[in-house]
Amino acid sequence: MTCQDLAARIQKLQPQAMPRDVARLCLLLTNYIGDIKELDDDDRLSEVWHEMGIRLQAATDQHAAMTAELEDLSRSDPDGFTMDQIWILIRAIKVQSQVLQLYVGQPPVDV
To answer: How far apart are CA 54 and CA 49, in angstroms?
Structure first.
């Protein structure tokens, strides 16, 4: 299967998707699956699509929550950071890493 084949199948599954979203989904799906030939099977494509959707939604939710915490943190004086505020920064790095891993297709880094 080529990227164009996968993109065409994604557009059939989600006809309202913008081209950049189709390209993003191609990248996410191919990075998630070990062997792209597995996506030839419609049931497997639907299964992987669903799994990736859940992972992406979870990462998006975590990212949104972390962004709100970081915005609050940015209004603080860094010289007076508490341990809780430092942990917010560490969690933010981990969440950002998880989102990045979805796009580069490498296993998550344990932090």
So the answer is: 9
Q: How does pLDDT run across 4-34, given as a tens digit for each residue?
A: 999 999 898 889 989 988 888 888 888 888 7
Exposed, middle or buried, 32 (CB in 10 Å: 0-12/13-18/19+)?
middle
| b/e burial code for range 62-83 (CB count within 10 A of at least 16 → b) | beeebeeeeeebeeeeeeeeee
- Alpha-carbon distance 51 to 29, whole Å? 10
Tokens 């049931």 correspond to 43
Residue type, 23: A
Average pLDDT over residues 45-59: 85
Domain ranges of the chain: 3-104
pLDDT above 70: residue 50: yes
